[in-house]
Design goal:
Blueprint lengths: L1 E6 L6 H12 L4 E4 L9 E6 L21 H10 L2 E5 L1 H8 L6 E3 L7 E9 L15 E8 L3 E3 L2 H9 L3 E5 L10 E5 L5 E4 L17 H8 L2
Parallel strand pairs: 1-2, 1-3, 3-4, 4-11
Antiparallel strand pairs: 5-8, 6-7, 6-9, 9-10, 10-11
Helix pairs in contact: 1-5
Length: about 220
Amino acid sequence: MQSAVIVFPGSNCDRDMAVALETVSGKKPHMVWHGDTAFPDQVDVIAIPGGFSYGDYLRSGAMAARSQIIPALVAAAERGTHILGVCNGFQILTEIGLLPGALMRNEKINFICKDAALVVENTGSVFASGYEKGQTINIPVAHHDGNYFADDDMLERLEANGQIAFRYQDRINGSANDIAGITNSNGNVLGMMPHPERAIDLRHGGTDGLDLFRGLFGN
């Protein structure tokens, strides 16, 4: 399987994401610039990394959502390509409508940078297939705008459809229903605020993120 990482001006986790993808798949991912209009042929996984695309001007992900690569990303998602958006990538996915809701300023208006305990809520998607339902994993977070919001009707649909992949064990940033990550209704798009690519090496503090990438590549 071949993967790609989209790089925006202000991305700062693109190399971390590339290392994680290569570690599990054994293949270097294509690094796709935001100004490109297409992905290489035979790309099975597309990752949108964390960072501060366009300096978070206007609001996080708003300007990146107007980049030239976005129509190709939407088309890939509609074809069933697996799309992983982490942190700023999650924000971008909500801005372009591939995922519902929005990411707002953290409840206490502070930047949060620490390991977070997540509960695996649903293992029905490939992203969480390497975990057990109810399992607790530790994944780093680093965000200022990670407070997930959706109206009550949407929250009910997300819960009923099993689209909540990960939930914070403790109240961290004010996210509705303690949501840390959600999938689309088809299960091929995942957005999450915590950084699984930063949890693939014991020398960096833990390996709880590895199973997400293993599930993604069917390992």
